[in-house]
Amino acid sequence: MLKCRTLWRTLAPLARTSSTVCRQNARRAGLNNGRLPACVPAAHMSTAPAGGGRENQLYVLLVGATCVGGAIYAYRTVKGDSQRYQDRIDEISSRPLKTFTEEPATPTQSEPPAPSPAEPSPPAPDADPADPPSEEPAVEASPQEAAEPAAALIVEEEPPAAEPAEARPGVVAEDEPVIEASPEEAAEPPVVEPEPSPPSEPTPAELTEPVAESEPPAAESAAAEPAEPQLEAVTESGDASPASHKVSSHTPYLLIGGGTASFAAARSIRARDPGARVLIVTDELVPPYMRPPLSKELWFSDDPSVTETLRFKQWNGKERSIYFQPPSFYINAEELGSAENGGVAVLTGKKVVHMDVRGNKIKLDDDTEISYDKCLIATGGVPRNLQVIERAGEEVMKRTTLFRKVEDFKSLDKVSRNVKSITIIGGGFLGSELACALGRRSTESDLEVIQMYPEKGNMGKVLPEYLSNWTTEKVKKEGVKIISEALVKSVVSKDDKLEIQLKDGRLVKTDHIVAAVGLEPNVDLAKSAGLEVDSDFGGFRVNAELQARSNIWVAGDAACFYDIRLGRRRVEHHDHAVVSGRLAGENMTGANKPYWHQSMFWSDLGPDVGYEAIGIVDSSLPTVGVFAKATAKDTPKAATEESGTGIRSESETEHTASSPVASSAPSPTGVQHKDEYGKGVIFYLRDKVVVGIILWNVFNRMPIARKIIKDGEEHADLNEVAKLFNIHDD
Description:
Layout: H1 2-32, H2 54-93, H3 143-147, H4 183-187, H5 204-208, H6 218-223, E1 250-256, H7 260-272, E2 277-281, H8 306-309, E3 311-313, E4 319-321, E5 343-347, E6 352-356, E7 361-364, E8 369-377, E9 381-383, H9 387-390, H10 394-398, E10 400-402, H11 406-416, E11 421-425, H12 429-442, E12 448-452, H13 465-477, E13 480-483, E14 488-494, E15 497-502, E16 507-510, E17 512-515, E18 519-521, H14 526-529, E19 540-541, E20 547-549, E21 552-554, E22 559-563, E23 567-569, H15 574-588, E24 600-604, E25 610-615, E26 623-628, H16 636-643, H17 649-652, E27 679-686, E28 689-696, H18 702-711, H19 718-722
Parallel strand pairs: 1-2, 1-8, 2-5, 8-21, 10-17, 11-12, 11-17, 12-13, 19-22
Antiparallel strand pairs: 3-4, 6-7, 7-8, 9-18, 14-15, 15-16, 20-21, 22-23, 24-25, 25-28, 26-27, 27-28
Helix pairs in contact: 1-2, 7-15
């Protein structure tokens, strides 16, 4: 080809010169005859008129020589290609071919084909050990194949069509000889060596997993070289142990926190994306569970092993566990990366200590790094403690419970059975619920239960004063000693007792303290992640879609969101965790929905007194209460029997108000200042608009209350509004 190009460069100028001469001769001849030729194609030099002399002869010779040279070159090229093709066919035909049995192949690594064949000591399980190696046809691996490093991701690689004799290293048929690797392959250890697979028929799960097989029987693994642990080298089959105990280094959906919000988000994600892989990371040692029963129903269980089973009877008599789902609902965290249909995995006992929002990854307390596509922060809160207790020393702290988790319930249950006196500091929801629960237990044992708080009555920051005083008397009847308007000055350990010194001089001696003084949102990740924390309410500031960043959402107690009716808020209740977690999960899958839900909360002072609330319930606001006489069905126990659920928000949040019909019965005017408040509705007002509602022993009416707050209208007569709740019906 190069010779032809050189020849053409030499002859081309001469050809162009000859062509020009021919055209000029033709033009002169036409002018001399008085006309132009009928056809003088400019591109065909051979059509020039006869004559022209030596130049035309030279042109013909050049064109002819070019044609002959091209034909010779084409002939030699075709002949050479045919010869090389035939040589290749002969080479392939001369190789010893091996016949494979039609057996499903076990996926293996695309690395040097000798995890097990490279070691001649463990032969194929069904091969006769007495067969001499010399009878086995050896196939040499190519140098490129021997030098190729082991791949971290294990993918089945089909052999090249031109070399059918190279076998897949993970497949050994029963009636075929074992292929030995080249000495270079045997001498060079691979980076990651999978264990040899048994010759049995692979399961469907094994055929679809791009992962290494589980460890072989002990007789084979003893002779085989142990494989190095790798990040994703796990199997999903239930009868095989994983090849690694490390979780995948990447997960599409990462949920930080193992509470109600995380679980609600996981279910929402899986509902919209059935194949989603969701990883929940929690510092607790148990899967997600509901917290309300820890201070309510569990304390009224008759089962002595309730601290182990964590099962309880709801007020409706049905028994259930505090866990949202049994362990079989989740898949192992090590198997999440290889799960064909996705799933939800819980990584327990791990704490996220650093978050890199730019790199989309987190670091755990064991230095494990996990990257993500989308992340939910649902870290909840941490129980507050009194500074006087924190400064009191280690002995006082050992005998103080900050009630929040399952471990706290188990610990307090054990303490209540072994001590003589327990003092609860705090008069809010949690403190009053624990006081009633322990007070009822005190009637069965010689246990003294004391509750102290700085307010005048129980739940004094929430309930109007008259209702707070009534509640206090109710708690006293449960066997609780009440110390109101109590400000703790100091706590010391003396003579195997804890002495609580109050600022007014009173002294209280007790064996154990339960601090129930509020919750602090867990925003430890804010600094490393560069996320904004609200200075007024605490928690991560999020937009209407619960987003803190484009691929980071926050839900539950740790979210500070904007309420379109009530302004920016942060809510610490079960219903809010359920709804915000569910919405965050939907938005993580592309729903882009705003958070407009008015969450509710409830509290039960035993099976006979309970209330549900929504909106802003603050005793500092003006209130209007409308009450009626209670009946036997106006109790938490009766309400749950009617609704069929023990966690009331599970039914309340699924319904909406639909044109409520007001009761026609006459209603009393204003608050009934009596010793008994059977049932009623308390309205909380701001600028004459209802911003909060408490339903006192009135159940299954929350959608109506939610609609009233959503409308945001000013009502001239709240007695008429109270009729919407049918509190005067028998």
